[in-house]
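Anyone else keep sequences and structure tokens together like this?

Example one:
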Amino acid sequence: MFRVDVVLPCLNEAAALPQVLASLPPGYRAIVVDNGSTDGSAHIAGAAGARVVRESRRGYGAAVHAGLTAAEAPIVAFADADASFDLSELPAIVDPVASGEVDMMLGFRVAQTRGAWPWHARLANRYLARRISAAARVPLRDLGPMRAARREPLLDLGIRDRRSGYPLETVLRAAAAGWRIAEAPVRYRPRVGVSKVTGTVRGTATAITDMSRVLREVS
């Protein structure tokens, strides 16, 4: 069995997937969750050795939860499939969970170039991180698009959101359950292709709306 399953929600990431999958550390298996791609992403992922899961219901949370449900390794990590992260850095996120030092580790993004993180996305992230820190009583700088935790406890949290609020609800429920949550820096690069969320002001506004709703419902 693989030591770690890495869930990669995917919607038309054919151009990025070869680079993403090639950077996986030994002992880590990619689970690419195809969320309705039309560019052959699923075929490329399968040919590269990833396990491919199909999720017809659109939404970041729907894709991530399908990958979590399909995972079999004791530890599950999550990242974007757009090459904005270097998956070779995953051990820095996974190892503290594997050693029992923390229950959930989040990667806070350190932009490598000026265009890696659009201004509107940075502002939205800063605003939401402050609200999450206050609600969860955990000091956070980022919403943790790269993160890791043990599979069974994650499933036991009972995350309900299937849209952009999924990561936020995960942190809130984990904090409420007494989890030890920490952060580590990860490099953040310009993604390959156009973002479905933070690449546009409209997409960022939608994410803020989703996350604000989760904050009201869960906190």
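And example two:
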Amino acid sequence: MKNMKIYLGIGVAVVAGFFLVAADHIDAPAVSGGTSDITDFYAFQGQDTDNLVFVANVQGLISPANTGSAAFDENVLIEFNIDTNDDKIEDLVIQAIPRDGKMYFFGPTAPSVTGLNSSILTGNASGSVDISTYGQSAVIKEANQMKFFAGPRDDPFFMDFARYGDIIAGNETAFANPGSDTFAGTNVLSVVVEVPKNLVGSSGTINTWVESKRKQ
């Protein structure tokens, strides 16, 4: 079992059926410029309304010229945390870690330990998928009622940083409509897992957050 230590976590509450998003592009000093930086976290109801989709994007602001060589870090675990009883402690986790061109998924299952350290739950493998290649069709794998994807995607987050700077400086009072997308033309590496709702709690409400954890 491999012990991992948290480098960045983003938390939001999710009510099944609603779309939630959190974003943080290269702001945290501990991960700035590294391979464990989480840029976005999305959780939403799937096209199949009995499912939830979890998305973690890492390594933001990748230029098209550099996307082909961008790669997931094999020493970084992506962990989706799910709190089913509102005590702000993960009751279930879904883990994803890359190895030799594939992304391997474990869970959802109860973690062996909660908090900042994790062990890869090798006894609870749920599936794997070939990491998609930039410029090629997306590879999606289905197994154990779940769907998996990992690979480069266009950065989905919209932010007008120049206008934001003007507002902070007191030179403007509001964002322009339409604004200018600072992230246009840049890419991220995405990890996506779609899972039946009945595997992540049946109360109707969960808390969920994502963490990247580096091998120690």
